[in-house]
């Protein structure tokens, strides 16, 4: 059972909480019916993502066996058979689709976006991840699809800001993750994936700088836009930009100084500084829109 759980990666489900962003930014965080729909979308997306994790490990099994860390994965180590991996792919996908039946409304569009996510990631696993830049764009777009699923499942109309900020932030994180691959390639002389040779530290560092800067500017523009001020009836949301800036700087520090950006999920689960910043951002945002 331990190896099965390692293959479907439930610890990675935390990234699917992105589907709850429409609820958070719409000010409906305390609406129980909306929250229930959001969590249904969360579990559905998590099951679909686990299906993709299994497929990715099957495709990369030989490459993972040569990797110093990934060689310990269930399929690469032989703890789980390839046949069992295919069974898990079908099981997780079926659970994803069945979970959506509990949605009170918004079934069709949510089915569509999760189905598109699944097909897109099949393409990613089979071919697209071999191409530098395209690979990180697809990863970032996958999170946009999570936001879309959350919006449609809860019948919340998404603003252009949340879609744009999600893509930019996840593109920044994806480049930071690729930096870890480049550093490992420089240390071992062997690329951890085929497209790593199309990246180098100079390019990655510039890409991280560009995407982080645009993300911050986009967030500030969102907080001071007339649309946002009218929606939340407050002009003080710009104050939360402080936490966004500090959070981005902390992540760059982890990536460039500590070289710990290989797994963004583990960074968020283990780095106390990042956890405090995210908590303070969330609390300040909620305080401003509900009490000011």
From TrEMBL:
GO terms for MF: transferase activity, transferring alkyl or aryl (other than methyl) groups
Entry keywords, A to Z: Cell membrane, Membrane, Transferase, Transmembrane, Transmembrane helix
One GO CC term on file: membrane
Membrane-topology descriptor: Multi-pass membrane protein
Localization terms from the record: Membrane
InterPro entries: UbiA_prenyltransferase, UbiA_sf
Membrane-spanning residues: 75-102, 133-152, 158-176, 203-224, 236-252, 273-291
Pfam families named in the record: UbiA
Matches recorded under NCBIfam families: PRK12324.1-4 (NF008978)
Name of the protein described by the UniProt record: 4-hydroxybenzoate polyprenyltransferase-like prenyltransferase
């Amino acid at each position: 059972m331990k190896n099965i759980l390692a293959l479907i990666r439930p610890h990675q489900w935390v990234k699917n909480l992105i589907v709850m962003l429409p609820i958070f930014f719409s000010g409906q965080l305390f609406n129980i019916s909306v929250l229930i729909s959001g969590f249904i979308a969360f579990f559905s997306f998590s099951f679909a993502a686990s299906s993709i994790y299994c497929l990715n490990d099957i495709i990369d099994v030989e490459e993972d066996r040569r990797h110093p860390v990934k060689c310990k994965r269930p399929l690469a180590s032989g703890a789980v058979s390839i046949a069992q991996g295919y069974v898990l792919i079908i099981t997780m996908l079926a659970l994803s689709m069945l979970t959506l039946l509990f949605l009170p409304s918004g079934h069709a569009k949510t089915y569509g976006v999760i189905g598109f996510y699944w097909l897109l990631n099949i393409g990613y696993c089979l071919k697209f991840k071999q191409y530098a830049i395209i690979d990180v764009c697809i990863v970032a777009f996958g999170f946009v699809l999570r936001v879309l699923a959350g919006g449609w499942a809860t019948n919340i109309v998404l603003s252009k800001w949340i879609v744009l900020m999600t893509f930019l932030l996840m593109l920044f994180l994806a480049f930071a993750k690729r930096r870890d691959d480049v550093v490992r390639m420089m240390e071992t002389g062997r690329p951890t994936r085929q497209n790593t040779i199309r990246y180098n530290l100079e390019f990655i560092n510039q890409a991280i700088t560009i995407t982080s800067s645009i993300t911050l500017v986009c967030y500030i523009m969102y907080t001071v836009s007339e649309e946002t001020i009218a929606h939340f009836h407050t002009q003080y949301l710009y104050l939360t930009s402080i936490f966004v800036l500090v959070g981005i700087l902390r992540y760059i520090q982890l990536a460039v100084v500590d070289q710990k950006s290989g797994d963004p999920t583990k960074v968020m689960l283990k780095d106390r500084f990042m956890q405090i910043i995210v908590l303070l951002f969330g609390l300040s945002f909620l305080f401003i829109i509900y009490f000011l």
